[in-house]
Amino acid sequence: MNNEQFRFLMRYLNRIADDERLNTSHISLCFALIICWNDQKHKLPFKISRRTLMSYGKIASISTYHICIKDLTSLGFISYAPSYNSYLSIRFYLFNRFKNETWRKLCKCQSLLS
After folding, report:
1. What is the CATH number of the domain that holds 53?
2. pTM, whole model, 2 decimals?
3. Could you tell me if residue 113 is inside a domain?
4. How many CA atoms lie within 13 A of 11 on its CB side?
5. Domain enclosing residue 99, as ranges
6. What number of other Cβ atoms are within 10 A of residue 32's Cβ?
């Protein structure tokens, strides 16, 4: 990860930490998403299974997982395309909330990785 990507990620994490509407389950799930995004070489969208996210985020309840995903989506921290099939992966986009102000930077970071 280069310096610009690191600063971009730190801004995203700081905004998550500063948002008082989020609880520990939301933050845990965000970190799980970031770990998966990093594992897949910063590709957007990236694919991951619910089971893996729940494992990384230490979330035991499916209902808590769905509540957190719904909240993070409605607050604009992520967007995702559910598969509705437990054997298929879910496609996630991070940084949806900040698309207007930082989308060009994200695209620049993506091109640096290629």
Report:
1. 1.10.10
2. 0.77
3. no
4. 13
5. 3-107
6. 21
